[in-house]
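I would love for you to help me understand the pair of lines that follows before we discuss the fold together.
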Amino acid sequence: MSNDWVKEFPGAVTVCDRDGIILEMNEKACKTFAKDGGAALVGKNVLGCHPEPAKSKLKGMLSAGKSNVYTIEKSGVKKLIYQSPWYENGKYMGFVELSLEIPFEMPHFVRK
């Protein structure tokens, strides 16, 4: 990736353009998606990596430029998935997906 800090960031970072073409993946994303092709996914369409109904939802998100945030549990690991549009000079350019492992029990603070 173009920014050194993100290369070894402990969360998976995947960046795609407005059409869903994967532009960049950090090391964690390549490991996370190794069974799907890992680093070889760069240049491929992210829609090809998702089954229905997720594929249709993602297609709508790409088109509308709307964020999607949720948690999942897979193989005993809980993750926060944060999918959000990214912009360059105010122009919608695509999506960034952050996948962060989180504890099952975690503190929640309300700040004033």
In short: The mean pLDDT is 93. DSSP finds three helices and five strands in the chain. Residues 4-102 form a domain with the Beta-Lactamase fold (CATH 3.30.450.20).
